Automatic annotation (TrEMBL):
Key words of the record: Membrane, Transmembrane, Transmembrane helix
Name of this protein: Uncharacterized protein LOC111356273
Record-annotated membrane-spanning stretches: 28-49, 61-85, 97-122, 129-149
UniProt superkingdom: Eukaryota
Name of the encoding gene: LOC111356273
Amino acid sequence: MDVYGEIFILEKIPQAAPRLDYLNIRCGARLIAILGILFGVTISTMLLIKDRKNLTPATLILVVFLSIFVIVTIMFVLASVLLLMAALDENPDLMSYYIWLSIVYLCIQLVLAIIIPLLLIVEGRYPPVIALIWMVIVMIVGLGWTHFISVVSSYRLSLLSANQF
């Protein structure tokens, strides 16, 4: 078989349809919110039941912030997955929507990553060195996710510029 015959066989393969026709990923924001809130409330309930004998106001505030952190982390991961699905579908509108959702969730996550260790230090449960190490680790992970968002954003811009020509 020659090269032209192989190309002819490849041309017979039908073009791939968009992968997300069967799924309306605009409903992703609701899915993100519902799953994130359920998971966060479950974790906070487990923490409160386990440690209810030693409950102080600082512990209660810490549990609330940890629950919000878990909720936002789950929401961020789901938004990133939906962002990747929108990128695979080459849909620039949905990509920009999920890029902004991911950026908002990442900012909330990074703010909480600073507040939670400070509360742990104030409460006296951990030495400052451990809290600082945790902050650095979360910031490095945040930088990795920021790089992922910027790569997808660049891909979105290249799709938009390709559509203009």
